[in-house]
Amino acid sequence: MATIEGSDIKKVVVACDAGMGSSVLLTTQLKKSLSPYGVTVEHSPVDRIPDDADLVLCHSGLVDRARHRVDDTVVVAFQMFLGDPAFTRVEAAIRDGGTLAD
């Protein structure tokens, strides 16, 4: 099980597969909410997640593929593209210095 301290997160990658645009909207939202903490947010296809990602966010249906691609990186799953508690948990860990695990 991979873990990371919120204070160590500098790059978050939102990984997708379907190309429906929801993950791009999520990326934009997270850029706004995480930029005050010095965190960059990028969008990537799940099979091409960059190796320098500190944290990966992806829909629960893509978790296994994401973990296979970046096996030593924390992958946080979510169910809803907007308002999912996972996003609140990630922001709180970054802001308050908590630990995230997959």
From TrEMBL:
GO terms for biological process: phosphoenolpyruvate-dependent sugar phosphotransferase system. Residues 11-82 form the Phosphotransferase system EIIB component type 2/3 domain. GO terms for cellular component: plasma membrane. InterPro entries: PTS_EIIB-like_sf, PTS_EIIB_2/3, Sugar_PTS. One of its GO terms (molecular function) is protein-phosphocysteine-sugar phosphotransferase activity. Keywords: Kinase, Phosphoprotein, Phosphotransferase system, Sugar transport, Transferase, Transport. Coiled coil: none annotated. Gene3D superfamilies: 3.40.50.2300. The phosphoenolpyruvate-dependent sugar phosphotransferase system (sugar PTS), a major carbohydrate active transport system, catalyzes the phosphorylation of incoming sugar substrates concomitantly with their translocation across the cell membrane. The enzyme II CmtAB PTS system is involved in D-mannitol transport. This is PTS system mannitol-specific IIB component. It comes from Nocardiopsis metallicus.
